[in-house]
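Suppose you are handed a protein chain with no further information: no name, no annotation, nothing but its sequence. What can you learn? This example shows the usual starting point.
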Amino acid sequence: MKNKFTVFIALAVLCMVCRPCSASPSTLAITGLVRQPLNLTRQDLNGFDAIRVQLNEVMSDGSFQGVFHYSGVPLKSLLELAGVEKKETAFGKKVDLAILVRNKKGMQVALSWGEVFYRNPGGIIIATSASPIMPHKDCRRCHSPEVYKSRLDQFQRKIGFPKLVISSDTYADRSLEEITSIEVLDLRPKIPAKKLKKLYASEFTITGAVEKVQTVQDLGAYPRREITVMHLGEGKGYHGFDSFSGAPFKAILDKAGIAPDLSKIFLVSAPDGYRSLFSYGEIFLNTAGDRMTLADRLNGQPVKNGGKFILVLPDDLMSDRGVKAIQKIEVISLRKKSK
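A reasonable first move is to predict its three-dimensional structure. Written in C-alpha cells, the prediction is:
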C-alpha cells in the first residue's frame, strides 16, 4: 500500500510540472536523455522540499561576490523526477553521461552524471532564494574603505534565479545564475563494449582538446602519492579497502595542456569499452579533484590484473566510475553545443 501511495505522489508531481519542452524565460527546461522532459517555473521549484547550503562566492581569479545561504532543491532530485535513461548503447551504465547547464546569457557549465549522483545531494542544488551572511565586524583596522566597502556591497547585489549552486567547489565559477536549461547528454553512445579474456593496456593516450596529444607509458615524470580507497559498488556492494600508489590525475592533465573551460569534460576509457566521464570543474575547482589518482601500484605491487593504470576516486560514494586498464583520455569541449 505504501509503495502505491509513493507512486501516486510521484505521478501527481509530474502532472503539476510537466509542460511543453520549449523553455520560456520564466521556466527551467530539463531535456535530453530523460524519460519525462520537464519545464519548471520558479513556483514549481519552490514546491519541492528545500535544503539550505552556504556558498562562499570567491572566484578562481580572486574576485569576491559575497557569502550567502542559498535555499533550493538538489539537482539530483530534479533529474530523478525527469528519469535519466540511456537510449540504444552497448554500455548501459550512466557513468559516462554529461549534464550541460545553460543560462539566459548563453553561458554554460558541464557537469558529470557521477558528481551529481555519487556525491551527497546538498553539494549541487538549484537555488530559488538567498540570504546574505553578513560579517559581524568591519575590517577598518586591516583594510582601507576602498577595499572593504566594495566587498560589503556584494552582499546587497541582485542574484538571478534559478541559480545552479555548487557548494562543494572551492571556487564559485560554476555557480551559474538565471539558468534556463539542463540537458543530459551521451557523447559517445556508439563506442562498442565487449568482454575481454584479459583486460590490459600498456599505455594511455590523452587526446582531443589539448595542446599536444600525449602517450603515457609510465608515471616517472609526475609527483607520486599513496591513497587508501574503499570499494563500494552498485552491483557487488562493499569489498573492503585497497592501497593505491600513483600520480594525481590533475597533474597528468595539466602536463597535457588543458585550457580552462567550464564546458570541458574528460572521457576516460578502457579497451573493453568501459568508460567514465568527469567535468573540468570537478577536477580543477573541487577539492575532490585533488584526490583523484591515476594509479600504477596496488597494495605495494605493480598493477597487473586490470592494469596497468587504474583511475581511482576516493571521494565518490560508489566506486563505479573507477576505470581499470586506462587506454584513452579524451578531452572534449561542449561549447559548440551552446544555443
